[in-house]
Amino acid sequence: MIKDISPTGTQKNRGGAAKPDLSVTIAGVRLKNPVIAASGTFGYGSEYADIIDVSRLGGICTKGLTLHPRPGNGGRRLHETPSGLLNSIGLENPGIRAFIEKELPGLRKLGPAVIANLSGKDIDEYAEGAALLDASSVDMVELNISCPNVKAGGMMFGLDPQAAGEVTREVRRVLRGKPLMAKLSPNAPDITAVARACVNAGADALSLVNTFKAMAIDIRTGKPVFDNISAGLSGPAVRPIALRMVWELWEALRSSSGTGETTRAVPIAGMGGITNTGDALEFLMAGASAIEVGSATFVHPQSMIEIIEGITEYMQRMKIGRIEEISIR
């Protein structure tokens, strides 16, 4: 079974067989492999450069960026749960201008594709931030309309198809030179309707899922653990649900392509509790063109490297030449 596969750490070709091609192209951006560091879990790459060979990753999603600097949420920000992690960071970041000036040059030198995660408190702020990123050297913009840890903007736009379409359309209008990937919330009543609205408004790709809205209570005080009350749940606990959502969305977009509901089936980056090769392969088989790894990096920084090696070994074992063949059914 796939779940029994574990990476051996070797990239050698067996029996002289050609090395499989792990490269993928998402909305015109070529990644050397489908493994992307998820937003908010990898800093700006340099934080992990002394621990792993960051250059081997397919891409890096930046921390959530806003037009103006944000201090993030006060109080406790992390709380471990069984097979999961609650976070209430609140999009702490230096602002887009400071990111472009101080962080982006070093991030570019690391090698992987650079995906800027863009958030905002209103549509005007999203658009102004997108214009700055459009003039920068980032490869792609991931439109964050799904963060549950901010009181304005974020997930507010990702719950309603009309609101999601409006912010996507406005960002697409000013983002003329970069591909746009919309990051979706699992908390939306109808995530497929939100996805269609984003695609019809100009999104070139979709990423899902962001964290699940959740909470914890400190039984010693009888009060919520987080000042913000609710937080975002990630980790292995959410993986089967996230996988189901990726599968259903891929099927919906593929079956409706050309029918008028949506005019195109766009690439999907799947995420949610991916910790090992087997998890990654499941998402690829469910229709994802790429995968994003987040919480697993906190527990085991080598996770993404091992997943890359594990996918390579799996493809060699199954005599699969190109990564796209994994998802063909």
Keyword list:
single chain, 329 residues, alpha/beta, TIM Barrel, 8-stranded parallel β-barrel, 4-stranded antiparallel sheet, disordered N terminus
Give an account of the 3D structure.
The longest helix has 18 residues, at 239-256. This protein is α/β, with parallel strands linked by helices and 329 residues long. 31% of the residues lie in helices and 18% in strands. Helix 2 runs parallel beside helix 4, helix 5 crosses helix 6 (239-256) and helix 7 packs across helix 9 (303-317). The protein has a single domain (2-73, 91-212, 236-326), classed as TIM Barrel (Alpha-Beta Barrel). It starts with 23 loop residues before the first strand and ends in a 12-residue tail after the last helix.
Q: Note the main sheet.
A: 8 strands, parallel, barrel
H and E string: EEEEEEHEHEHHEHEEEEEHEHEHH
Proportion of residues in β-strands: 15-25%
Through-space gap between termini: 17 Å
The CATH superfamily appears as: Aldolase class I
Name of the CATH class = Alpha Beta
Helix content: 25-40%
Corresponding CATH architecture: Alpha-Beta Barrel
Strand order of the largest sheet: 3-4-7-8-9-10-15-16
- Any idea what the shape is? globular
CATH topology: TIM Barrel
**Number of separate strands:** 16
Number of helices: 9
Class per helix and strand makeup? alpha/beta
Total domain count: 1
> Any low-confidence stretches, pLDDT <50, length ≥5?
1-16
- State mean pLDDT (0 to 100 scale): 91
Outline of this structure?
By secondary structure, the chain is α/β, with parallel strands linked by helices. The chain has helices at 96-109, 123-134, 155-158, 161-174, 191-200, 239-256, 277-285, 295-299, 303-317; strands spanning 24-26, 29-31, 35-37, 59-61, 78-81, 84-87, 113-118, 140-144, 180-183, 205-208, 212-215, 217-218, 223-224, 230-234, 268-271, 290-293.
